[in-house]
């Protein structure tokens, strides 16, 4: 029995309404921030808001890069995020291969403990982490911030790679062993080249985590010259007045790297999350 086109269209109507509502909720604030960055101050704070800039201007962006320390914050965030991403990829790939591929004794229980550590709220660990970094001389350094970021990204990324590793046939390991390859050579030359989607997923997650991280950066970095973007944007906001043009322009440039990265490898990220959940 065939369903009439009008009935099919009517049945899909709630789904389209839900998708439209979700799109407005997610993209609406991004659109408002982006449009406000091109408005002058009078138009931003006007009682009757405008959807499009009446007189588009780049003055907010010019003042952002010439009158504030935003370029320094941008460079600091880029170095911390890239270092966190690289170290997380190395650590999580090595840990995932040992836990889910070599299957050493006790690896199942250890994998559960590692994933459980990811669920501990970071704010509970600020005091012990501060003491540890202080004894190591890593307070007020980007290296200390990178190590803390990796400690919170590596457990989840290790679990994330589980689905990708389980999808690679074990026969490849046996074939590599017959050719005389040891575990390290099998890992680097046989298994890892097949993990490109998993590596892309880990890269996106760790980069975005470090890029937007605020709590640890505000506690473990003391010098203004070492502040990252989330801390720097807070500094742009004055004590008594707020220059909304600068704030909106800073928010746009802060969002831009993560949006571009997700546009390039975002499909791997969604596939990686689904793969990790299904395996």
Please report the distance between the alpha carbons of the first and last residues: 37 Å
Q: What's the number of structural domains?
A: 1
Helix content: over 70%
The computed structural class is mainly alpha
Task: Give the tally of β-strands.
Answer: 0
Per DSSP, the total helix count is 13
Instruction: Give the CATH class.
Output: Mainly Alpha
Beta-strand fraction estimate: under 5%
Main sheet attributes: strand count, strand direction, barrel closure? none
CATH superfamily: MetI-like
CATH architecture: Orthogonal Bundle
Task: Report on the architecture of this protein.
The chain is an all-alpha fold and 279 residues long. The protein has a single domain (60-277), classed as MetI-like fold (Orthogonal Bundle), CATH 1.10.3720. It is 74% helix and 0% strand. The chain is built from 13 helices and no strands. The protein has helices at 5-37, 41-44, 59-66, 70-100, 107-118, 126-135, 142-166, 171-178, 183-191, 196-212, 215-220, 229-236, 244-278. Helix 4 packs antiparallel against helix 12 (229-236) and helix 10 (196-212) packs antiparallel against helix 13. The longest helix is centred in the C-terminal third of the chain and has 35 residues, at 244-278. It is globular, with a radius of gyration of 24 Å. The relative contact order is 0.14.
């Amino acid at each position: 029995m065939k369903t009439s086109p009008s009935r099919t269209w009517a049945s899909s109507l709630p789904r389209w309404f839900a998708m439209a509502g979700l799109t407005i909720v997610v993209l609406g604030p991004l659109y408002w921030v982006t449009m406000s960055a091109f408005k002058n101050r009078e138009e931003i704070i006007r009682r009757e808001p405008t959807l499009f800039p009446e007189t588009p201007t780049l003055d907010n962006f010019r003042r952002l890069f010439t009158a504030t320390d935003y370029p320094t914050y941008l460079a600091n965030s880029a170095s911390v995020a890239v270092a966190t991403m690289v170290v997380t990829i190395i650590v999580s790939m090595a840990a995932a291969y040992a836990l889910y591929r070599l299957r050493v004794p006790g690896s199942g229980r250890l994998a559960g403990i590692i994933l459980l550590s990811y669920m501990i709220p970071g704010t509970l660990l600020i005091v012990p982490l501060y003491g540890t970094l202080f004894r190591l001389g890593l307070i007020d350094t980007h290296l200390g911030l990178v190590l803390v970021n990796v400690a919170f990204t590596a457990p989840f990324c290790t679990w994330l790679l589980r689905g990708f590793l389980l999808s690679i046939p074990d026969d490849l390991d046996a074939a590599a062993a017959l050719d005389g390859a040891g575990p390290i050579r099998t890992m680097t030359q046989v298994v890892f080249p097949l993990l490109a989607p998993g590596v892309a997923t880990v890269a996106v997650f760790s980069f975005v985590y470090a890029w937007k991280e605020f709590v640890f950066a505000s506690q473990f970095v003391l010098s203004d010259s070492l502040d990252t973007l989330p801390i720097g944007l807070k500094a742009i906001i004055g004590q008594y007045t707020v220059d909304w043009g600068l704030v909106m322009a800073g928010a746009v440039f802060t969002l831009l790297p993560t949006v571009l990265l997700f546009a390039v490898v975002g499909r791997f990220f969604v596939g990686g999350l689904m793969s990790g959940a299904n395996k």
